[in-house]
Amino acid sequence: MAGNIWLWLRYFVFYPIFSLIPPPYPYLFSRLLSRLDYWRSSGKRRAIQKWMVALLEKPLLENGKLDQAIRRYFEVIYCDEIDNFIYLLGFSKWFLRRLRIEGQENLNNVLNRGGAAILICYHFGGGFWVLPFLREKGVRIQFFSRDIRKEDYPSGKALFYFYRLSNWTIGRMFDRDVSYKGGGRSSLIQALQEGFWVTTAFDAPPYLIKESTEVDFLGRRTRFPKGLVSMAKALDVPILPFFSFLEAGKERRICFERPLYVDDEQKAVEQCVRLLEERIMERPDHWHLWPTAEDFFACSS
Fold first, then answer.
1. Terminus-to-terminus CA distance in the chain, angstroms?
2. CA 205 to CA 227: how far, in whole Å?
3. DSSP strand pairing (100-102 vs 251-256)
4. 81 close to 162: Cβ distance less than 8 angstroms
5. How far does Cα 168 stand from its chain's mean position?
6. Which residues contact 205 (CB under 8 A, 6 or more apart)?
């Protein structure tokens, strides 16, 4: 009960109020709020520590870096979550102007090609601002999300309404409803055939995946989705991965990776996984799935 009250306050009181304040204060206040969650969430801290120690290289964990990464993990999550409210209520144009873009040539490669593409994000750093950024460039996007059903949140309705609000915001941004997993892949194929860019998170936990393939990830075996990769090959559309970074706690850096043109599906999946590994090693505090990594690696031997 106390946890759900905290989520209601966080999502529907603190974030809306913070988002009304001129930048960089929304991120500053969100980071300060995250410290309360850091101190009260001892179980989450232990889970993050357990999996960082198990999966990261030792130099990344020395000289107090582990504790620092865990504290920053909470900051990254909170700044990611408030982005939705900043776009709806706050100074979104300021945030867009201050985006630092890397890999512009990779983005241009896909833009100049024209037509559809698959824009792959990860549960990493928070990639919300790439959507209004691409919208300003005239890109039409079809966002794909896992199913968000009220019955899946019996004691946490605040999470349900927050996720629904986030997807409503994206739908409103592009005047197009979000596609959900339960609707099947036909809507995504149709969107690609109509020239839309389909975007979704690539690093879904294995139990949420229907079409998957087994790969090495952070030294363990797990499964990653191959459905979008199969569609990219069948429809001859490029895959454009990107990552979002929280720089100095107050600004966003968006990095577009080299586009992938799929010939071998297994190789393409492994390339997407290697990219995620590299970015996690660069900024381990940015990967959102540390607390639930036990589910993510459930199929590991």
1. 36
2. 14
3. parallel
4. yes
5. 16
6. 289, 292, 295, 296, 298
Residues 6+ apart with CB under 8 A from 162: 7, 11, 12, 81
What letter does residue 22 receive in the DSSP assignment?
P
- pTM across the whole model: 0.93
Query: Residue-wise over 213-245: b if at least 16 C-beta within 10 A, else e?
Result: eebebbeeebbbbbbbbbbbbeeebbbbbbbbb
pLDDT digits (tens, 9 = 90+) for 172-199: 999 998 988 766 778 889 999 999 999 9
Q: Which residues contact 123 (CB under 8 A, 6 or more apart)?
A: 201, 203, 287, 288, 289
Cα separation, 284 vs 107, in Å, equals 25
Residues, the chain: 301
How do residues 229-287 score in pLDDT, each as one tens digit? 999 999 999 999 999 999 988 899 999 999 999 999 999 999 999 999 999 999 999 99
* Cβ atoms of 254 and 129 closer than 8 Å: yes
Residue with tokens 């900051």: 75
Angle at 276 between CA 78 and CA 83, to 5 degrees: 25
Rounded Cα gap, residues 27 and 128, in angstroms: 14
CA neighbours closer than 13 Å in the CB half-sphere of residue 2: 3
Which of 114, 129, 109, 155 is closest to 3 using CA atoms?
155
Residue 252 to residue 101: CA distance in whole angstroms: 9
288 SS3 class? coil
HSE (side-chain half, CA atoms, 13 Å) at 118: 28
Residue 83: what residue type?
D
d(CA 13, CA 26): 13
